[in-house]
Amino acid sequence: MTSNPFFERSTLEYQLPPFAEIEEAHYLPAFERGMAEQLAEIAAITSGDEKATFADTVVAMERSGELLSRVSNAFFTVAASDSSAGIDAIDAQISPRLAAHRDAIHLDRDLFDRIESLYRRRADLELDAEQLRLLERYHTQFVRSGARLDATGQTRLRELNTELATAATEFKHNALADMNAAAVVVDKAQELAGLGPAAVAAAAENARSLGHAEAWALSLQNVSNQPVLAGLADRDVRHRVMTASLGRGLGRNSELAIRIAALRAERATLLGYPDHAAYVVEDQTAKTTDAVEEMLGRLVEPAVANAQREAAELTAAMRAGSPDADGHELRSWDWQFWSERIRAERFSVDAEALRPYFELERVLRDGVFFAAEQAYGITVRERADLVGYHPEVRIFEVFDADGAALGLFLGDYFARPSKRGGAWMNALVSQSRLLETRPVVVNNLNIVKPPAGEPALLSWDNVRTVFHEFGHALHGLFSDVRYPYFAGTAVPRDFVEFPSQVNEMWMTRPEVLANYARHIETGEPMPAELVERMAAAQRFGEGFRTTEYLGAALLDWAWHRVPDAAALDGVDAATFEQEALRKAGVAVEAIPPRYRTGYFQHIFSGGYAAGYYSYIWSEVLDADTVEWFTDGAATIRDKGRTFRRELLSRGGSVDPLEAFEAFRGRAPEIEPLLIRRGLVR
Fold first, then answer.
1. For 414, phi and psi rounded to 5 degrees?
2. What digits encode the pLDDT tens for the residues 102-152?
3. C-alpha span between 181 and 223 (Å, rounded)
4. Average pLDDT for residues 514-534, to the nearest whole number?
5. Residue 595 · residue 648 · CB < 8 Å
């Protein structure tokens, strides 16, 4: 193929991929040429006999693989957000080939010798701080990728990485298919009692799109506790929804999870680590498994104690509020429903009644964008003339306080069968002064799409997610680094959630909330006393939320603390999961972990293996930072300027904890998190 839009840099603004021109047939040839070009570039680096220099080795590597980056960024965005049978087939074919390609670079003996030579001479190279860190990071990356293994070890490592890439891709495809297939269809509108009119209309539209005439369909999200459980009054329907949710992946994905965990354990042993978790955290801010286990262990007992107190209240409410519930035990499908009843009675907060205050367009423009303008001075303008990868994708141009163009932001907010579950940010183009590129970043959510012409009304959790993901987007948009290796969110996994969690603080700032939380019909702002009741209601349920999260984090940890592949011989995934939760002290029957093994995409097909602890590890930094933002005499704009300069703009070019200390003035402290989560009494 000689004509392919990937073969040259995009001529669109900010090098936005020309999605209007891209066809499925373009991807595979672009991948193949991109890999071949990068290997030729690596060969050129290693072909000379002269002594290695930083410019002809490290900088040359940073410039290599430009075509491969272009096609990879576009393809994997589409594969996650708007997949098809053709895209899935390419994904299954290319993922193991990309793993082999990475190994071909990391296990290139001549290339590593040049990097090692530079690393040994680093004190004499007169490098600046960013250059020195880049050299050190490359050296660490190559060593951790097996550059020092003997030939036999490298051969086995290549096999393991290829098998892992194949299995992870299969897990991802299975999870999406299982989630779509598990939609719960009901035949009578009264079975949806408790849901608001907008939610019922959306369920009817969803059923029609799935081929069910005169029915209502509740599609699942990629979590255990489905948000719809909070409203459904019919206990049998709640039971059906929870059963469908927890039953995903019990066959093929459970088997794949065992296989993936065994392969990772073998790879860790090959690389000289006691288990995969030890391998992962060595290169994170946590550094050791002991540090992670100490932090998680400190949270388990108070979280479960809080959850048990909540369970007692919920059981009492259920038995008092439902004539046929006397003697019933509180089940997982009851928890959210009766939590909402208590919030409604005790705090006069009805989750469904709140939705009219949270219309997507207003939350986005008058909430998320407004808050970023207040804190950082940026402005955002929609670009209807630019085309995304799907008709529902919206494209915005982002400008700095002085009017200078920063980059593009793409928002893809609605759920569809071709999109994987959850919410995430990724980059189509990363910022780099070396490559003269500016950022193009994407936010994906899975909000239920309303019928045509109807507004999209959000839950409070949806609002939080919109703010959270834009925090990741800001991390990418504010990037100001020389080398692409460090751009945007290229930071340790247990640090990457920190800026996005900080951005959640703006959703409840009085001046921001008053600007976006206005009734869709009357335009009236949310009453101040309702805001206060919401805050109180939010605190009820921290035991559940923390226990649910810890269940997932500790399940991830258990799968990746197995010492070798043999430890998983003959293991049943469901039994392993149950025993892991019991040993960790979070086996609360009515609170399943946020993700069960069969659909835990974060760890089996994403980048969070042995790293799901990252969310609460980052929340330590987040809670401490929110306290900093609200303390002292400096204005929010001044604080935002400092936070951006010292942390958001630096990407991975500095040590993350040093970046934290640069604006905070000290090391992080855990106490603000314990207070926020209700874990101190």
1. -100, 145
2. 999 999 999 999 999 999 999 999 999 999 999 999 999 999 999 999 999
3. 15
4. 91
5. no
What are the residue ranges spanned by the domains of the chain?
13-148, 182-244, 355-525
651: left (phi over 0), alpha (psi -120 to 50) or beta: left
DSSP state of 8: S
d(CA 14, CA 525): 38
Query: In this structure, are residues 435 and 65 in contact, taking their beta carbons and an 8 Å threshold?
Result: no
Residue % of the chain over a pLDDT of 90 = 89
Picking from 668, 659, 611, 654, the residue whose alpha carbon sits closest to that of residue 280 is 611
Q: How far apart are the first and last CA of the chain?
A: 67
Confidence band of 89 (pLDDT split at 50, 70, 90): very high
CA distances from 436 to 184, 430, 482, 484, 487 (A): 49, 10, 9, 10, 12
- Tell me, what's the pLDDT at 1? 62
Distance, CA of 439 to CA of 409 (rounded, Å):
8
CA 446 – CA 461 distance, rounded (Å): 12
Q: Is the pLDDT of residue 680 over 80?
A: no
Q: How far apart are CA 61 and CA 143, in angstroms?
A: 16
- The dotted CATH code for 13-148 is 1.20.1050.40
469 is catalytic: yes
Distance, CA of 117 to CA of 96 (rounded, Å):
31
Structure tokens at 577: 């999961």
Name the β-bridge partners of 217.
Answer: 185
Of the two residues 529 and 173, the one the predictor is more confident about is 173
* Mean pLDDT confidence for 558-574: 95
Q: What is the percent of the chain where pLDDT is above 70?
A: 99
Distance CA 397, CA 410 (A): 9
| Helical residues (DSSP H) of 182-274, grouped into ranges | 197-209, 235-246, 252-270
Neighbours of 244 (CB within 10 A): 18
Q: Give the C-alpha separation, 452 to 206, whole Å.
A: 12
Confidence of residue 675 (pLDDT cuts 50, 70, 90): confident
Rounded (10°) CA dihedral 242, 246, 250, 253: 130
Adjacency order of strands within the sheet including 394-399: 379-382, 394-399, 405-414, 440-447, 424-429
Topology (CATH) of 355-525: Neurolysin; domain 3 (1.10.1370)
Characterize the bridge pairing of strands 440-447 and 405-414.
Answer: parallel
Triad 288, 289, 292: Cα angle to 5°: 100
- 359 CB-side CA count, 13 A: 17
CA distances from 43 to 59, 71, 115 (A): 14, 21, 14
Residue 541 CA to residue 337 CA, distance in Å, equals 12
Distance CA 489, CA 473 (A): 9
Q: How many Cα atoms within 13 Å fall on the side-chain side of residue 112?
A: 17
Nearest Cα residue to 67 out of 4, 117, 128: 4
Q: How far, rounded to the nearest angstrom, does the alpha carbon of residue 55 sit from its chain's CA centroid?
A: 34
Go through the chain and tell me how many residues it has: 681
Identified catalytic residue from 163, 205, 352, 469:
469
pLDDT in tens, 31-46: 999 999 999 999 999 9
Identity at 424, one-letter amino acid code: W
Cβ-count burial of 50 within 10 angstroms (0-12 exposed, 13-18 middle, 19+ buried)? exposed
Distances (CA, A) of 523 to 35, 456, 507, 518: 54, 15, 18, 5
